[in-house]
Amino acid sequence: MVRTDVLIVGAGPAGSMCAYLLKKAGVDCLLIDHATFPRDKICGGGLTYKTWHLLDQLMPGFRYDYNPVTRIRLSVDGKAQCTFDIEHPIRIVQRKLFDHALLQQYLALGGTFQQGALGQIEEQPDGSIAVTLKSGQRITCQYIVGADGSNSQVRRYLKPDTDRGILAMEQYMEKQDDCIEVLLSQSYDAGGYFYRFPNQSFDVVGFGDYTTTPEKFRRIMQENNIPEGKARGAYIYSSLDYPLHPHILLIGDAGGFANRITYEGIYNAFCTAQHAATAIITHRPFCDTNAPVFRRIRREETLCKLFYSPFSFTILRWMCHHPHLIKTIFDRKMRG
Ligand SMILES: Cc1cc2nc3c(=O)[nH]c(=O)nc-3n(C[C@H](O)[C@H](O)[C@H](O)COP(=O)(O)OP(=O)(O)OC[C@H]3O[C@@H](n4cnc5c(N)ncnc54)[C@H](O)[C@@H]3O)c2cc1C
The domain that contains 116 carries what CATH number? Predict the structure, then answer.
């Protein structure tokens, strides 16, 4: 039987950041992940200014590889297009390397990491929580931080009938240019867009909306003249419909914190990791420490309906003729 104050399940950006902040504050914690690192993660890997700025603050001096991109090409309905340069670059990372580097930051503090898959969670009469890993190993803790992504087992403990969210699919292709492409179309279901993110040595192209299927993904790739490649998909859970628990906290994708309009998720993975660490260190409820994120997500849920409405597409098409307006709004949004 292993004893720890905090068990963090999942060593993606949310879990590694939370473990790093807890360890730095001297809290006894154990980080587990069922994958062997470095492991891959389906993701565009775009770190917006607010994301890398927050990362710089939370992990000062952390160095990682990225491709800085400032040029964006936006296309609306195939009828209007504009290209503009943003104030601060979007840093495009390879998640396999980036997540591994984040984990190393925690390990460099002397943090404990173990490979293992979550099995069962049982709350004990004395208030502690007993966890059994799939290997049969037992761990007792005071807190569990669920950072195990969109298909979270920790969330399933709190809400067994949880759904899976939207399916986003990606493939790699030969590098084109150092310009991010975003394509919005009313022919996609509300809440979806096509994108191309240029990495250092290849491009990532992807699409996701509420009715994505491999066939639909292939069709959209063909429409955009993307050569056929190996497509991969992942769900992005986007709901806050689970009960909050004082000692079982959900962060990152496990808690459904990806942006409701863009599905950018690494920023809120860091924000919620920081807020969970603060809740544990200061013995305050997570609903208080994380209140700004809960409020932001609720606002986005309303805004999302407006953003993907026909009215908004008319405005966006008009704005393509005035790229400086789009740039101004984009720059402001990127700052957070
Ligand atoms: C196609 C696509 C493109 C995206 N593009 C971007 C982008 O450009 N920019 C951006 O900011 N966001 C993007 N996102 C969202 C982003 O990938 C996620 O928001 C981010 O990965 C969330 O981090 P996380 O740490 O919460 O979860 P994850 O990164 O999913 O990490 C979860 C970890 O938990 C582990 N785990 C899972 N289950 C268990 C278990 N039972 N036991 C132990 N370990 C477990 C996994 O192995 C994994 O390491 C994209 C997502 C998709 C699907």
Answer: 3.50.50.60
